[in-house]
Amino acid sequence: MAETGVAKTPELPNLVTILAEKFHGSPFASFLIAWENVIFSLIIIAAIAITAYAASRKTALIPGRLQSLFEMFVGGVDDFVCGIIGHDGRKYVPFIGTLFIYILCMNLSGLVPFIKAPSASWSTTLALAICVSVYTLYAGFSSMGFVGFVDHLAGRPRGIVAFLVFIPVMMFFLEMVSLLFVRPLSLSLRLRSNIWGDDMLLAVFASFGLKGLALLIFNSIMAIVVSIVQTLVFCLLTTIYFTLILSHEEESTAK
How many CB atoms neighbour CB 189 within 10 A? Predict the structure, then answer.
């Protein structure tokens, strides 16, 4: 068990907490606890980078298993994103595909002994959600320009509505609140809460010993399902956010 603040939160031991316990009271232990989620995030990033390098180091017309797996994944993400956004969505495939791999690996890492899922921490999921919001804003500015993007957020007021300044200003304010606060909060809290809940249940069932083995196995299976589903939900919502911007651009072009 590990302590978080005043209350004790069930948590499986991991490499960082074991090392922190060994060097208890030292500045090194404080550093490990403070940067626990960042450490595991970097470990996962390194593992993904090494795997990607191994898959792309020697590409061939007749691909090996690892290259085939990556090509299938890239093709699947491309079909997924372009199927929702359209042909213009291809430019966002690398971003959404990277999000999918990174989030899925973080979610599943909690099932690996002595590894903690970084996505069980709100600081990690909030950072990812902020990246999505910032990129969405950038996509809006780059596709429509400053004036067009402000016009979009204001609800494209025309005719008599354009003279009712209160309505466009209120629409602009509500859209900015959604982009900067509501979307990041909903994206981050949904992902964090589901993964944190699964990790907590795993720790509780593991504390039962052999008596809780059946529950532990069942919850591990459910954790895998939840990890995949939550990754898909996060990436689907991200794709939809881009769709709202790009579909508006197409409507403006058509008019």
Answer: 14
